[in-house]
Design brief:
mainly alpha; 27 helices; globular
Length: 558
């Protein structure tokens, strides 16, 4: 199919999503590497040497624990520029009873004297036990065991004391910084919108409304009770938007800023920087089998079930729900909807189903794992391969333990890497099979390229760039500058803001009357339930087979 009047790629939201995210990533790298001073490098080297020398001893000594803790305490956010970058994108503070704490939470005095005294006593006892074990050259098992136990007790108290003191620290959110973030985002997205023939006058007023609603959604999501029930910002953002659009109506002056795909595509390119090839290699073949074998099977079977058994009229709706449920929720739904040319209402249906089931599964799955006595690693793999939202995966995995959280989040990251492959395959399938009989006698490579969500190229490029950087840098520098620096303090929160802006836009663009036709007969709901049941059973079976039967030696090292 030839498209002589196609819009130039350089004027599309895909190009500008890549351009904006690429600018943010490259500028962020320049800023964060500039904060890596010679003194900081020397400190990393010296402290790392202590960790390595102490690691050779039969007992993880106090010096090893303190040097390891010192490395984790090194933060670029202690630098004035790093602190500014962190505050610029920080989300509202967590709060329970006082809503004002979400926006302003000063440090409060804490009586930690007794805790600090107990901690010092525990350290002294651990030091005495370690010296006794060391005096025998660490050859006496009884002395070694006593040292290990004393050091573990000291570490438990240290963890508890740190957790308690964190409650009294000041919150990181700042309204002035958020106002500055609004101005910055209004400019960069406004430029992208202008190239797409939306003027600043059309864009800025609506963007102000969307940003305000996104801030309210993030504020509600920061409430501890809501968070415990899995009511995340995506749900609040869509609910706020839908409430306005179906009551007083979305203002006409806001229409120019409802750039759902533009916001979320930019966020997805940023997310690519978090998906590192090293994460795949760390967990090995079991995680790859769970993420890359089960997912395509569930996707294909669910789509077939929707078309053959349920006979869902809209194939784009069918494939979007299938990808949403089988791959990784909203991110996959956006990419698949773009590739299949699904309508905005169809995308909203898929996302709504995903959010409801994610909230339920996030609470129910850890309880089921504990009730059945399922191994922690198996439970983590099951959660990572089935729950849609990455945030919900982290929360559900953490409810089981650190190992479960590690396995769950890693499998989810591996699964997220399928977004680009799935989008490409859907674009090819819909261009050559689905739409060929209804729209054109011949489909060309140009049509496949036209359908392909090109922002995925930015997603893959960001993943490759940051994977190479992580391999090129030593472990501690990579952690300081990338994982806990640029990604942890800047782009991860920025991505959340972009996604929230997109979800508000979805809500403001959604009309219940338009959605109603997609729920007639309950077919989308039935499709999601049946697909998720298959996903749950198949993921659990493959995870057990891979982690405990085929590769038990890898499982033993986790």
């Amino acid at each position: 199919m030839n498209r002589p009047h196609q819009q130039s790629f350089f004027k599309t939201e895909d190009f500008w999503a890549i351009a904006i995210a690429g600018f943010l990533l490259l500028a962020g790298l320049a800023i964060y590497f500039s904060m890596l001073s010679a003194d900081l490098k020397q400190k990393i080297t010296a402290t790392s040497a202590i960790v390595q020398s102490e690691a050779n001893k039969p007992v993880k000594t106090i010096a090893w624990h303190e040097a390891t803790a010192e490395l984790t305490r090194l933060k670029l956010s202690d630098d004035p520029l790093g602190k500014f970058m962190k505050h610029l994108t920080t989300l509202p503070n967590k709060w329970s009873d006082d809503p004002l704490e979400a926006f302003y939470k000063p440090a409060s005095p804490a009586d930690m004297a007794s805790d600090i005294h107990a901690l010092e006593m525990a350290r002294q006892q651990a030091l005495t036990a370690e010296q006794s074990a060391q005096s025998s050259g660490f050859t006496e098992p009884a002395l070694n065991s006593a040292a290990v136990a004393a050091i573990a007790h000291w570490q438990q108290l240290l963890h508890a004391t740190g957790k308690k003191s964190a409650k009294f620290k000041a919150g990181g959110f700042s309204l002035p910084h958020s106002a500055l973030l609004f101005c910055f985002l209004a400019v960069i997205f406004g430029i992208g919108a202008k190239v797409q023939e939306i003027t600043f006058r059309q864009f800025i007023p609506g963007f102000a409304l969307i940003f305000l609603l996104a801030l309210i959604a993030l504020f509600l999501a920061a409430q501890n009770d809501f968070k415990d029930y899995g009511l995340e910002y995506a749900l609040w953002a869509i609910l706020l938007g839908i409430t306005i659009s179906n009551t007083i109506g979305t203002p006409r002056w806001a229409a120019g800023a409802l750039q759902t795909e533009f916001f979320i595509k930019t966020g997805l390119v940023l997310m690519g920087a978090e998906l590192l090839i090293g994460k795949i290699l760390a967990i090995g073949l079991p995680g790859i089998f769970v993420a890359w074998v089960v997912t395509p099977i569930v996707l294909v079977v669910t789509y077939w079930f929707g078309q053959t058994i349920l006979k869902i009229a809209s194939k784009p709706l069918n494939i979007t729900i299938s990808a949403d449920m089988s791959v990784c929720g909203v991110s996959a739904a956006i990419a698949t909807a773009a590739a299949s040319k699904a309508t905005r209402e169809e995308l909203t249906v898929a996302i709504s189903l995903s959010m409801v089931f994610t909230a339920v599964m996030m609470v129910a799955m850890p309880l089921f794992v504990k009730f059945t006595g399922m191994p922690e690693i198996l439970g983590g793999a099951w959660i990572g391969g089935t729950i849609d939202s990455s945030g919900a995966v982290v929360a559900a995995g953490a409810a089981l333990g650190d190992k479960a959280m590690y396995v769950a989040t890693t499998i989810k990251m591996i699964q997220n890497m399928l977004i680009g492959i799935v989008a490409f395959c859907v674009a090819v399938y819909f261009a050559t099979k689905v739409d060929r009989s209804t729209h054109a006698p011949q489909i060309t490579i140009g049509e496949i390229w036209h359908r392909f969500p090109k922002f995925i190229l930015g997603f893959i490029g960001a993943s490759m760039l940051f994977s190479i950087l992580c391999e090129a840098l030593d472990k501690h520098t990579a952690s300081l500058v990338l994982e806990h620096g640029m990604l942890g303090d800047f782009t991860r929160n920025l991505r959340t803001w972009f996604f929230c802006l997109a979800f508000v836009s979805i809500g403001l663009s959604t009309n219940f009357r338009a959605l109603k036709q997609h729920f007639v007969g309950g077919k989308p709901l039935l499709l999601y339930v049946c697909g998720q049941l298959l996903n749950l059973l198949l993921t659990l079976g493959v995870a057990y087979l891979m982690f405990y039967k085929v590769f038990p030696e890898i499982t033993a090292t986790i």
